[in-house]
């Protein structure tokens, strides 16, 4: 018996994978995408379409949080953040055509924005809590934010005696195709809690939805607020995507199409039959 030859294969180190033909389209806000891959900032490997907004007077803990977050995103994209822009002026940063990563707190003018789901102010937070909050990451990811049960139903005031931080995802107020992710904290203990979460893969797995509350007891995410979409699709894929949300309508259209096609074929065959009979006569 002859043993088979030892066959080995290797991928040429000069080869490349071209994924430029793929379409990019995603429902936002989706903090699970941010936790897994650093999206939307990692869309450009050098973070050239990212602006980080930091407090004008940042302390050591805030700077450490900022650097650790950038290191995590760069690790996911595989390239250093050479194109990153840094700003301490929310007004100017919001006008730029870029995705914003906010650290610390929102500017005062953003506190009245209808998409603002959470505000932190010295261990006090106000959470627009939905009346039908999903309990796990999969349910949060699949939640329909247009469902009235998932719309902000009440304003709950919570008094926090321990450290508390939050991660919020929302649409940019100035650009429809841009996103804002805010890492909110106020006290030293809050930033420490935020850093521990960002460096803990287990806790980051719980980051999902549009609002994530971080406490010493754990991480809790919810899907509230308005949904928007980032990316582009050809018109035929967009039509299919819209129809996929209405299976009954899609079924009715399919049945109608089959009936119309059958009717046209019947008419053509009937016309052909009459023509043949007329020719034979």
From TrEMBL:
GO terms for biological process: cellulose biosynthetic process; UDP-alpha-D-glucose metabolic process. GO terms for cellular component: plasma membrane. Binds the cellulose synthase activator, bis-(3'-5') cyclic diguanylic acid (c-di-GMP). It is found in: Cell inner membrane. Tightly associated with the cellulose synthase catalytic subunit. Keywords: c-di-GMP, Cell inner membrane, Cell membrane, Cellulose biosynthesis, Membrane, Transmembrane, Transmembrane helix. It holds the Pfam family BcsB. InterPro entries: Cell_synth_B (IPR003920), Cell_synthase_bac (IPR018513). Pathway: Glycan metabolism; bacterial cellulose biosynthesis. This is Cyclic di-GMP-binding protein. It is a single-pass membrane protein. It comes from the Bacteria. Belongs to the AcsB/BcsB family. The lineage of its organism: Bacteria, Pseudomonadati, Pseudomonadota, Gammaproteobacteria, Pseudomonadales.
